Each structure stands twice: as structure tokens, then as C-alpha cells.
Amino acid sequence: MIEKIIPIAENHYSNGVAAIPSNFEAPVGLVTDTLKRPLRDLRISVTDRCNFRCVYCMPKDVFDKDHVFLPKNSLLSLEEMARFARLAVTHGVEKIRLTGGEPLLRKNLEKLVEMLSALKTPDGRELDLTLTTNGSLLAKKAQALKDAGLKRVTVSLDSLDDTTFKLMNDVDFPVAEVLHGIDVAHRVGIGPIKINMVVKKGINGQDIVPMARHFKGSPFILRFIEYMDVGATNGWKMGEVIPSAEVVRRIRAEMALEEIAPNYTGETSVRWRYQDDSGEIGVISSVTQAFCHSCTRARLSTEGKLHTCLFATGGHDLRALMRGGGSDEEISTAIAHIWRARGDRYSELRSAMTEGLLPTVKKIEMSYIGG
Ligand code: SAM
Ligand code: SF4
Ligand code: SF4
Questions:
Q1: What values do phi and psi take at 114, rounded to 5?
Q2: Which CATH code fits 5-369?
């Protein structure tokens, strides 16, 4: 009988669960949520800190010198993260993405990569282990990450033009260093490398076609992401979103493209290939084409809260359970219980509402919950 109660914060969008009922059987194996979505992906935020101040993520006026980041002892240790991941894998997780904040700022990250790359699915397959980075430290860390078992990486890059890029990262970081990081990662054998470009109207819309031109014919897959209303600080407005359909239209006006099948069910990116066989691009339409119906992602925050939606207003405190002496069975039960109760579909609800009616609840920042 499981009596341990984990504090579960109220989550506006999920079927909030107060505690694990004592008659809840510890499930072994795969779990699905209330909308029959399996648990397949885990994103782990390894730090809430970042050396960039992207205007759409950590705007400088909020994340300024007075901003208080999490104290060291409240962060999950690398071992706690690996333990959580090992148990989540028993419930169906096949893909793990390390993120943040800027994950490469986390000390000894390669140790975590090493622990995670040793995990196997219950039927003996290797996990799909990757990370998302702003690329600033990639040149320095690529070899160690590769040696630790990192297979692939996604690098965020919003423009090839220094003025625009610096306007977006807001810390004067040059494009060339990110491109160098990408090249080094490629050279040490990390791949396939994906490049994420967040498109925000009025800032980098003019860079859509130059970015496509630049990466066409390269080994890298460029993906365009619609600017989202994550967190509570970026002042998001629907009018600042350039819909993916428009992105594709602009590229197609110059380069012939055709849509191709997803790599797997539930892939967030819609794929388009260049008809002259010079690669592909992807578009992630989180705003205009919500994909909650196939969302299989759980997020573990920097301080060990399990979130079942990027737009969650609260998380489930797994750190308390782990540090309170919770056994593997109890943690495993908690994961299954939380996932089974999940009913989140924020983006679909957003699509169904007009902007003025959007909920005003305080969402958690992406840098904390993990992008
Ligand atoms: N610091 C790393 C980076 O930038 O790649 C990892 C964390 S970041 C939060 C993860 C991804 O979320 C990045 O590709 C970033 O561009 C994207 N992102 C952040 N804020 C966003 C927003 N408001 N809308 C869409 N994507 C966003
Ligand atoms: Fe940092 Fe990534 Fe957020 Fe930019 S998007 S501020 S690089 S965490
Ligand atoms: Fe998943 Fe995003 Fe929909 Fe939340 S809003 S359920 S994270 S697709």
C-alpha cells in the first residue's frame, strides 16, 4: 500500500490530482493518459540559467541582475535526474531531451549524458538521447558530449544576420560562434543536427528565406518554430506570430518543396523536402496547428517538478518524494499516476479561444520548465 503523498500543485489544465490513493496499484509498463496518449518523451531542464536573454524567452527587463535563480541545493542532482529517467523509461519513455535554460552551462553535464545513454527501453533498445542548446558553448563541449554518448543535438539560431541575432539574444552574441559550434559538433560525429529558428514578426521574418538558402544542401535540418505564448514574461501577442503556412509559402516562392511523411506518429514538426533532393526543412506550428492530440511529452523541471504540459501552471514535486526516501516503486507509481490523470491540451484550447478570452493564469517560464 502506498501511503506517501506527493504534494501536487494545482494545474489549471490537467486533471489535478491531490495524492496517490492507497488502493492505486503500482503499474508496470506502459501508461496512457485520459486522452489515450502514451508517455514517450521526457524533457529534462538541467538548469534555469542562461547566458542569453532571448527576447521571446528570458527578456532582460525581467531576467535582470536582480533576478533570483534557483539555489544550487534546490536543483536536482545529475544522479536524481538519471534515477527519474530510468524509472520513466519503464513507463514508455524512449526519447530524452536535455534542455533548460542553457543546458551546456550545467557542470558535468557529460556525466548525466553518460548515465542516460546507458539506459535501455524494456525491450532492449537504445534511447533517443539529444539536447537543445543555444550553441554558444558547443564548440568547447561537443567532443566530451559525443564521448559520453550523445547522439544528436538541436541548435537554436534565429538569424544569420548579426544585427538581428543580437537583437534576439540581447547579449551581443555573434552568429559566427554558433555556426562554429554547429560545425564542430558535426565534425566530432554528433548528428543529425537540427537548427531551430523561432520566427517573430517584426524581428526576424526577413531571415526566413536566407536561413533556408543557407542550410539547403547542408547536412543540417532547419526547423521554423512559431513564436509561442510560453511563460508570463514575453508579452506574447497573436499578431507577432508568422504562421508556418506563410513560412512555407515564402520559401516555396523561391525553392520547390513538397510535404513528406512524418518520421513517426506524433512528430511535432511537419516535414518538407526540397524537390531537387537538397535536404529538408520542418515547421513546428504550435500556435496555428496545435498538436496536443498526439503530445506524449513530460517535462522534469530543474528542481524536480514533473509537468505534463509546456503551459502548465503547476507541477508535481518528485524531488520531495526522492529526497524524502521514496523507493523506486513509489517514484514509479507517482509517475504512472500523474500521467494517467493527465488531460492537458492547452494549445488546442488556445486555438478554440479568441485572444481576449485567453486564460490569465500565471504560466511557468520555459527556461525553468524546459523548452
Ligand atoms: N537554451 C537552449 C536553446 O535556446 O536552445 C535550450 C532551452 S530553449 C527554452 C529551447 C527552445 O525553445 C529553443 O529552441 C528556443 O528557441 C525555444 N523557445 C524559447 N522561447 C520560445 C517561444 N516563446 N516560442 C517558441 N519557441 C521558443
Ligand atoms: Fe536562453 Fe534558450 Fe531561452 Fe534563449 S531560448 S534565453 S538561449 S533558454
Ligand atoms: Fe503538449 Fe503543447 Fe498541447 Fe501541452 S500545449 S499538451 S505541451 S502540445
A1: -60, -45
A2: 3.20.20.70
Give the model's pLDDT for residue 360: 53
Tell how far the Cα of 370 is from the centroid of ligand 1, in angstroms: 8
Domain ranges within the chain, ordered by starting residue: 5-369
Closest atom of ligand 3 relative to the 347 alpha carbon: 5
> Looking at ligand 1, which residue's alpha carbon is closest to its atom 4?
134
Ligand 1 proximity of 45 Cβ (cutoff 6 Å): no
- And the C-alpha cell for 136? 554558444
pLDDT tens track for 299-343: 999 999 999 998 888 899 999 999 999 999 999 999 999 999 999
Q: Ligand 2 center to residue 366 CA distance, Å? A: 9
Ligand 1 and 215: CB distance under 6 A: no
Nearest-ligand number for the alpha carbon of 56: 1
The contacts of residue 61 (CB under 8 Å, 6+ apart) are none
How far apart, in whole angstroms, are the C-alpha atoms of residue 56 and residue 63? 12
Nearest to 240 by CA among 228, 249, 251: 228
- Decide whether any atom of ligand 1 lies within 6 Å of the 234 Cβ: yes
Q: H or E element: which one contains 181?
A: helix 175-187
**How far, in Å, is the centroid of ligand 1 from the Cα of 371?**
5
Confidence band for 27, pLDDT divided at 50, 70 and 90: low
Q: Mean pLDDT in the chain?
A: 90
Secondary structure element (H or E) that encloses residue 239, with its range:
none
E strands of 176-279, at which residues? 193-199, 221-226, 257-260, 270-274
Residue from 52, 133, 175 whose mutation best tests the ligand 2 pocket (most atoms within 8 A of CB): 52
Q: At what angle do helices 78-89 and 328-340 cross, to 10 degrees?
A: 60
Cα dihedral sign, 214-132-144-39 = negative
Nearest one of 189, 165, 183 to 175, comparing CA atoms: 165
**Chain position carrying cell 537548427:** 195
Q: Whose CA is nearest to atom 4 of ligand 3?
A: 309
Handedness of CA 327, 332, 334, 337 (dihedral sign): negative
Ligand lying closest to the C-alpha of residue 101 = 2
CA angle 145, 370, 122 (to 5 degrees): 65
